[in-house]
Specification:
By secondary structure, this protein is α+β, with helices and mostly antiparallel strands. Helix content is 32%, strand content 28%.
C-alpha cells in the first residue's frame, strides 16, 4: 500500500488552469463548460488579481495537484476584484455586481476545492491550516471565510479548526455564515 504524501506549496503561473478549475468548482459549477473559465484562467496568471497565483496555495498528493485554496487581504478586495469585474463586463457587455465577501480587517479565504478523487485525505484541512499560518505569520489577527448554510460538512471542518460564526450574510444568492478564526494567543 502506497503512503499518501501531502505537500502544500505556493502556486505558480503554471497552475493557472488548476486555479481556474478550483474557483469554478468552489462556486458549485462544472469547470469544463463554465463561461468564465478562460477569464479565471487569465486572472490566475496575473500578478495582481483576486485569483492571482500569488494568492493561492496548492496541495499535492504524491506529486500530483490535488486541490488549492485562494486567500488574500480583505482590505484589498476592491483592488483585487477590479480585473474580474472589468473582464466580465467586457465579455458580456454589462457590469456585474457582486456582494462584498471579505471584511477589511481580515485575511480572507476565498475559494477552496479538493479535486473529487483526492477528497477524504485531510487535504482541505491542511490547505486551510497552512493559509491561516501564512496569514498569522504576516501579522493578520483574523482569518475569515463564508460557508453556505447548505454545507454543514464544510462548517463542521471550519469549526474543528477553530472558526466561529460571526454573522449571517447572503452571497451570490446563497445564505451564508461569515466565520472567523482569531490569531492564537501566545502563551
Amino acid at each position: 500500500m502506497d503512503a499518501k504524501k501531502i505537500t502544500i506549496r505556493p502556486a505558480t503561473k503554471e497552475d493557472a488552469d488548476l486555479i481556474s478549475r478550483i474557483v469554478i468548482m468552489a462556486l458549485g459549477a462544472e469547470p469544463d463548460t463554465h463561461p468564465l473559465r478562460e477569464i479565471f484562467k487569465e486572472l490566475a496568471s496575473r500578478e495582481v488579481a483576486q485569483y492571482s497565483y500569488h494568492n493561492v496555495l496548492v496541495a499535492e498528493m504524491n506529486g500530483i495537484a490535488a486541490g488549492a485554496l485562494v486567500g488574500y487581504d480583505g482590505a484589498r478586495l476592491y483592488e483585487l476584484r477590479a480585473p474580474l469585474l472589468e473582464m466580465v463586463a467586457e465579455k458580456f457587455g454589462e457590469p456585474f455586481n457582486i456582494e462584498d465577501e471579505a471584511q477589511p480587517d481580515e485575511f480572507y479565504l476565498d475559494s477552496l476545492t479538493v479535486l473529487p478523487e483526492y477528497r477524504g485525505n485531510g487535504i482541505g484541512r491542511q490547505l486551510i491550516e497552512s493559509m491561516c499560518d501564512k496569514a498569522f505569520s504576516a501579522g493578520y489577527e483574523r482569518v475569515g471565510l463564508l460557508v453556505d448554510w447548505e454545507n454543514p460538512n464544510a462548517e463542521k471542518l471550519y469549526r474543528s479548526i477553530g472558526f466561529r460564526r460571526i454573522n449571517p450574510t447572503t452571497f451570490l444568492g446563497h445564505q451564508m455564515w461569515h466565520m472567523q478564526l482569531s490569531q492564537p494567543s501566545e502563551q
